[in-house]
Amino acid sequence: MCHIKQKNILPINTIFYVLLIVLLFVLSEQSAIGREIKVSSLINADQRITQVGWSKITENLSVNDILIIDCDFYIDEEIIISHSVRGDEKHIIYTTGKGKILINADKIIVESLIINGGTAKIRGHGIIANYVKNLQISNCDISDVEGPGVHLQTVEKFLINSNKICNTFGLYGDGILMLNCLEGEVLHNHCSKFQRIGIVSDWSEERKSKNILIYGNICKDAIQSIRPEINGGIWVENTLESKIIRNEISNTISKGIVVAPDTENIPSYHLIEKNFVSNCFEGLNVTFAKNQTIDEKRNRFLDVINIVEISEPKVFRSSGTIFESVDSVPKRIYFLLPSKNPTGSTIEILKSKNKVKSKGLVPVEVGNVFGISGDLSIKDCEGNFAVKLSENSLNGCISISKCKLDYSDLRSDFISNSKQMVIENCNILLPPNRSMKMQGENIEFKSCSISSEKGDSEIHFGTYGATKLLIANSSISKVKLSSIIRPETKMEFDRVYIKMDRSELFDSDFQQNKGVVIKNMKKNSFFF
After folding, report:
1. What InterPro entries would the database entry show (predicted)?
2. Model confidence pLDDT, tens digit, residues 7-31
3. HSE-up of residue 404 (Cα within 13 Å, Cβ side)
4. Is-contact 308 321, C-beta < 8 A?
5. Which distant-in-sequence residues (6+ apart) come within 8 Å of 181 by Cβ?
6. What are phi and psi of 51, to 5 degrees?
7. 3-class SS at 427?
8. CB 425 within 8 A of CB 380
9. What DSSP line would sit under 157-218, residue for residue?
10. Closest CA to 275 of 192, 218, 196
11. What is the DSSP letter of 509?
12. I want to staple 430 with a disulfide (CB 3.0 to 4.6 A). Which of 134, 359, 452, 485 is the partner?
């Protein structure tokens, strides 16, 4: 008997329901995409739009519809954007007086608009977004406006990308201004001729901004600010967690990059990496940094006067930074002001290159402020990294290794008030006819060359001297060791090579001190 296997055939009603579901899905997708509505078909012949007129244009739009700016028009009032908007990169929105574009809805995309606020006696404004989420503003061209080109107030999860902003005027004439903003990215924008700052992250006493990425932007050619001390390229203040990476900043009159977290002792982390700052008075200014960790990596500074200034961080790490100049103006590369907190600051400078001229200025200076404390480490750097530490600083440990410390043409003393100072594998050049001062609890020179090209130089160990002084495996030439007054000072000289008579090396205070230990020396050699 032959058995024929029957195929499974879906019932007619099942097929109908499947087709219905597919049809509904397609319709829902079309609805999600929305319509493209051209503004030219909706505005009056005079091309001027009022608030009432704009409301009529947008009242019948669905959530997912997109407005297409395909004609020029003028606004002298605030128009509210609650739908995504796209320009055609040809036609212009002219804003005058109170004219501005205000975004007040979530999930809005604004792209390829051209906004010009400078056609009337009273300038108009740019783009403003208040209390929204998931905002994107991309590829817009904004120029000649009063206030910021783009102004975000209490915005969460946003992208400001590839916009060109030029000629922003007034007390808040910034390229991009973010207040109380969270989880934002500011990428590849070009800001120029701003009357205050190129890009700002700050607060307005509502909440701190947080998690802001500023990457790949150009900020240049600032206009003199109404408040001259507030001119800069990128300014991050009252902000928790920020990253400032691969930006180019030039000709900003005053400051390049400012990071002033002021987080009321809430710990946070800030990264400043691979930026290029040129032709500014100050390069990187980190202040109000209590309990903050700052990483400054592989930045490049060209023709900046006061290049890096750091105030009260918990941790500041600088690595791979390059300092350059083509002009002849003397420059200071680091000014450090550690914390007054009991725990102090940890400051590390590693593998940086100093190619600037510092004649008359000390390349690295610690501020002369009573009560600051912390540890300072400088290692493996190229160029001159001479350090100045004043009488009131620094209550902490100092370590300098594999660096050149050239004081030969500097108007400076070399002073340490630290617990411990270790200088290792360094070339130390002292100025002629000068006394360089040093004092501390424990001072050690290891594998160093200490010399003066023209002679008559002294290392003066100060009123209080040191509890312990060690010079090991080092050479001394044309430099006198002078004035150890503290009677209990222990001095140890181990494998020290001198290129002078012993009487020329010590003054009377050294010669009278009975606590000198000399080790591992050979007779009839230049070792003593």
Report:
1. Pectin_lyas_fold (IPR012334), Pectin_lyase_fold/virulence (IPR011050)
2. 455 566 666 555 656 555 544 444 4
3. 10
4. yes
5. 152, 154, 155, 156, 158, 201, 209, 212
6. -60, -45
7. strand
8. no
9. EEEEES-EEEEEESTT--SEEEES-EEEEEES-EEEEESSEEEEEE--SS--EEEEEEES-E
10. 218
11. H
12. 452
Alpha carbons 44 and 308: distance in angstroms, whole number: 56
What would the two tokens of residue 120 be? 């009337």
pLDDT in tens, 241-287: 999 999 999 999 999 999 999 887 889 999 999 999 999 999 999 99
Cα–Cα nearest to 279, from 243, 233, 310, 237: 233
Assign 347 a pLDDT band (cuts: 50, 70, 90). very high
- Chain centroid, CA 47 distance in Å: 44
CA distances from 44 to 76, 93, 320, 435 (A): 15, 15, 60, 82
Would you state the structure tokens that stand for residue 184, as one six-digit string?
Answer: 């934002």
214 has which bridge partners? 186, 244
Residues 6+ apart with CB under 8 A from 464: 439, 485, 486
H or E, element range at 134: strand 133-138
The whole-number pLDDT of residue 528 equals 43
Closest CA to 93 of 71, 73, 68, 66: 73
Q: What is the DSSP letter of 395?
A: B
Tell me the H-state helices in 358-507: 502-505
DSSP string for residues in 51-114: HHHHHHHHTT--TT-EEEE-S-EEESSEEEE-SEEEE-SS--EEEBTT-EEEE-SSS-EEES-E
> How far is Cα 278 from Cα 227, in angstroms, rounded to an integer?
21
In this structure, what token pair is assigned to residue 138?
């991309």
Is residue 290 a contact partner of residue 317, using CB atoms and an 8 Å limit?
Answer: no
Closest residue by Cα to residue 240 from 215, 265, 274, 273: 265
pTM: 0.89
